[in-house]
Design goal:
single chain; 196 residues; alpha+beta; Nucleotide Exchange Factor Grpe, Chain A, domain 2; three-stranded antiparallel sheet; three-stranded mixed sheet; elongated
């Protein structure tokens, strides 16, 4: 605000206190004013470039953070889904032995009253084990009669036969298993080949 008691020049000087000298130089010629405006324009352009670069850096940092978060979520989900892998691999041999025991029981023993309870108990245990496997996403790999799939089957031997196409699985030596979408154990199989 201009004080009316002071002369006009003194009031104007009071209002301009604190303004840098290069902006107040009345006697500056046009060339110096152009230099100051150019310098100010360059400084402003540099600040705008720096601001844009900082914005890009922030966007990249946000994207990287989101990628890390997604990767950690995926790893957490996979760890949860496949946590039982080691245990499942170990228990497969128990399942194999139980299946062999059930298959080895002759029909004559199955019919005997004294053995009926044992046979029923073994079969119930086998069904329960398969039910537990299924509840944890552990499934048997189909093999018999299918073409050999090197991602799921391991060919142990070739059997010369004219009853099946070459490359077809004719016998399952050991069952194969998957846990969710991952191979837990490949099926060991015998594959047909053309007879000599």
């Amino acid at each position: 605000m201009i004080d009316n008691d002071k002369p006009r020049d003194a009031a104007a000087e009071d209002e301009l206190k604190g303004v840098p000298e290069e902006f107040l130089d009345d006697g500056a010629d046009a060339g110096e004013e152009d230099k100051g405006a150019d310098a100010l324009g360059e400084a402003l352009a540099a600040l705008r470039r720096d601001l844009e670069a900082a914005k890009q850096d922030v966007l990249y940092a946000q994207a990287e953070t989101q990628n890390v978060r997604r990767r950690l979520e995926r790893e957490k989900d996979e760890a949860r889904a496949y946590a039982a892998t080691g245990f499942a691999r170990d228990i497969l041999s128990v399942a194999d032995n139980l299946a062999r025991a059930v298959q080895a029981i002759p029909e004559s023993l199955r019919a005997e009253d004294s053995m009926k309870g044992l046979v029923v108990g073994l079969e119930a245990t086998q069904r329960e084990l398969e039910k537990v496997f299924a509840s944890h996403g552990i499934t048997r790999i189909a093999a018999q009669g299918l073409p050999l799939d090197p991602n799921q089957h391991q060919a142990m031997l070739e059997v010369p036969t004219s009853d099946a196409e070459p490359g077809t699985i004719v016998q399952e030596l050991q069952s194969g298993w998957m846990i969710k979408d991952r191979l837990l154990r490949a099926a060991m199989v015998a594959v047909a080949k053309k007879p000599d």
